[in-house]
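Lecture 7 notes: from sequence to structure.
We start with the chain below.
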Amino acid sequence: MSLLEINGLKTYFYTQEGVVKAVDGATYSVEEGETLGLVGESGCGKSVSALSILRLIPNPPGRIVEGEIMFQGRDLLKIDEEEMRKIRGNDIAMVFQEPMTSLNPVLTIGRQITESIELHQDLSGSGARSRAVDLLELVGIPSAGERLDDYPHQFSGGMRQRVMIAMAMSCNPKILLADEPTTALDVTIQAQILEVMANLSKEFGTAVIVITHNLGVVARYADNVNVMYAGKVIERASAANLYETPHHPYTVGLLNSVPRLDQGRDEKLIPIEGNPPDLANLPRGCSFSPRCDFKVDRCLEEYPEVSSAGEGHTVACWEWQNVRKRESSAV
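Predicted structure tokens for the same chain:
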């Protein structure tokens, strides 16, 4: 049994413009100690799927309307709120996208870290502070004991993100959800933050779900990758297989739009034409068909079934075999 299994998850937002199908039947799993990358353009459902795991969807207007979120054999959608609070921050923790808006500006860093420790770890006073110091040292913050009484505005962006990771790891969670953990950080600090998360995962055996636009991050740190589009997982594979043999036209487009070291100066990147679909008014058939160079008549009428493209590699595309043939002949 997988540590986390998400089956047919649907999270919709009910707005005046219509029903926004932010997550529309997503299915995937996460094993113990695995680092899973969730990639795709903005608005494809990555962050909403992570918030759904923690049942943090604002209602109204959002609602989880269907599916299962199985964590250690329990469906998180069927337990009461009190039980869910015991899981949040303790068994499943999250590093949010923007640390300056996620940290409370009027509470010290020490108080914000010890709050979760006191709630879930049955520690208080000097014991909780000592644990907070250990966590800050673990994520590489110098003079950790002195900095416990500082406020968020006294830390740099990279340091605030380290504090967020320390807070998330305070109870040794089984799963860490990292939503764009390196947004707005320069590339050197990005690498440091990602190394911190990778080391923590190895040390504690924590499974990590990394939500990112950065395919370089995925290539280096992820074991497996889910490519999302219009609320669905359209391709899943190991990171190595996905980069070597992408099958979905959208995945191919994402990889072609990333600069490579072996590209000549005169070679241009190949962007994906068009825009992501309106999630309140999805096209009939495959959601990617309006932007796809490989589409056939069937793509405009039927959403593709999930097909096996090799061991552990699945893809939702009617033409995936032809996509691979054309890509292979172009090399």
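Points to note: The domain at 1-91+171-331 is CATH 3.40.50.300 (Rossmann fold). DSSP finds twelve helices and twelve strands in the chain.
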